[in-house]
Amino acid sequence: MTTASGPPGTVLVVEDEESIADVLAIALRYHRFEVMTAPTVREALALAGRTRPDAALLDVMLPDGDGRALGRELRAQQPELALVFLTARDAPAEVVGALGFADDYITKPFNIDEVVARVTAVLRRTRPADVLPQRPPLRYGDLELDETTYCVHRAGRTVELTPTEYALLRFLVRNGGRIVPKEQLLRHVWQYEHAPAESTVVETYISYLRRKLDALGPPVITTRRGVGYGLA
């Protein structure tokens, strides 16, 4: 894992098509990432175990297994790992399934500049600094977000969130009871300057947060239809 003074991060690229893996590696290295490549699940697990990358860029369909299963195993071994999927499948069910535990997904064919931008954005919102100052927790109602450990509690009970879910909830908490427009969430949480109008990533992650938070108390996230989201 790299330090704050070194390259922007170490990326594990898991892609069995050599030409695609080479293009991704060249582009990421040009932008000062350290890059490791693996064509199979077995090799990816071995590499990740030795090097502990900051992010994994995973093809969904691999010759010896499913990239989503690989992502779950990598995340279980390294909870702070950022996960981005590469997939030729863009059906809503596939997208929702991928975003259930990953931080982003990119459909094939892709623009290489977009891939670099997406990986950079994911790391910016998920990777803490190597040394964090002690900061007071963020509080809203019975929610408490520990800005040093990135832990979330509701009514004293721990809520397990992915890095992106945490970033979304933190932004809503920081905005108090205000309604935050969807475009602002895309810009500040996902670092999207020009997100596609049909993007449903915000709605998807709001549903994940609601499922986890509402299990511990009354509904806390409100919707202003056609505008955005806020906290009750």
UniProtKB/TrEMBL annotation:
The modification 4-aspartylphosphate is found at residue 59. One of its GO terms (molecular function) is phosphorelay response regulator activity. Residues 135-232 form the OmpR/PhoB-type domain. InterPro entries: CheY-like_superfamily, OmpR/PhoB-type_DNA-bd, Sig_transdc_resp-reg_receiver, WalR-like, WH-like_DNA-bd_sf. Gene3D superfamilies: 3.40.50.2300, 6.10.250.690, Winged helix-like DNA-binding domain superfamily/Winged helix DNA-binding domain. SMART domains: REC, Trans_reg_C. SUPFAM superfamilies: CheY-like. GO terms for cellular component: cytosol; protein-DNA complex. Coiled coil: none annotated. One of its GO terms (biological process) is regulation of DNA-templated transcription. Residues 10-123 form the Response regulatory domain. Residues 135-232 bind DNA. Keywords: DNA-binding, Phosphoprotein. PANTHER family: REGULATOR OF RPOS, TRANSCRIPTIONAL REGULATORY PROTEIN TCRX-RELATED. This is DNA-binding response regulator. It comes from Streptomyces actuosus.
